[in-house]
Description:
The protein has helices spanning 2-5, 7-18, 29-50, 56-80, 83-87, 98-119, 132-155, 160-168, 184-197, 210-220, 226-240, 245-261, 277-301, 306-310, 322-334, 343-353, 364-372, 376-394, and strands spanning 316-318, 354-356. It is mainly alpha-helical. It folds into four domains: 2-125, no CATH class; 127-215, no CATH class; 222-307; 316-394, no CATH class.
Amino acid sequence: MANNHLSFFEKLINQIISKKGRSKISIPFTTLEKIREEGPRILHSFATSLCYISDPNEIAQQVNTLMQHIIFSLDRLAKRMRIADIVEINRTGGRLTETNIVHVIYNSLSGLLLNIERSYASYFDIHIKVPIAHLYAIKERYSKSVYSISKGFTKCGINAILVDIILESFVDIFPNGASSTTTYHRLFYLKRSIERFSLIGSSSFENIDPNSHLHDLLLEFNFNHPEYYKYLTAEAKKEMEGLPLREQMEWLIKWQKHINQVPVQPGLIYQPLDISLKQHLHNWITAEMNYLKELSQLAVNNPSSEEAHRWKNFKISTQLSVPQLGNILKLLVNGGFILNENKTELLEFCSCYFSTVQQKNIAAGSLRKNFYAEDAAVSESVRSILQQLISHSKE
């Protein structure tokens, strides 16, 4: 069907391409008007032919086949033009030279493509390749936007490596020559991303942690770029480095919860043929947690740690609350009564082997938070406990 609709244009394009160099083409002036009328005629004929089709899948197939043929014809014409001609594709008029004929044909086909996109938006495949001249037409405008975003990121302190990854991801969207593989989906993704990225670093942007804000935005936009995934997991390893196994597990659980709570924009994904960024991160977190569990199990079952295994289910039960326990430990450390220099290990040990009336299992992170917290009410309650101990010591 599509070939029959475009037969008029195909004959003209074949005639143009068969000519070498920039030689003139003998086309009657009346043909110029026929070229301009052909687009609306094809649109009407195509719409009429679809009236006899009831299957939505077949309609979608016909729409996408016609679009692909139009785009193929547009790219054939683009190869015949200079880059400057492509950039100025809307310029017409003047003498009836080959370049002007190419422009007229191109504009007619481009208008036809735009009408099909609008009329059959629910049918056309967004993974179809964008005509190369369309990309050249927006290249300068979008390049300026990307440069402005780069300056905004740097201004508000976004990590330089992260800035490079984001900018690199859009480099290949614009062509350097007469060919391109950029799809409508990719172009739509770029447009939506630029709209949101432009807000970061602007005068109205206020965020105490712009890097964290950008990470959430990239998760929302399903930015499953391979280099970003490597960067994100490498940063996660840095965060967990040096922490005891239990705290590493806690950190991963909290990060997984945060990832689950970030909403994802429907229909958006940087690489459609790959799994989502969330799925990538879930797979990585699951593998890390399984690895930590194996290490923990090895430590428990290690024959050289029989004494530790003996006390693994033992806990010192206390009426102290977790805030009170953290405050008392701080007093003993600051007063020089507990000499352990590594406070993280001390708090990990106490969280493992102490339990309160309210909490059978104390989270190391919670105990550490209360160890460093300044709370007047907790300090007052601890002073009261110490006074009771002084009274008992006098008996």
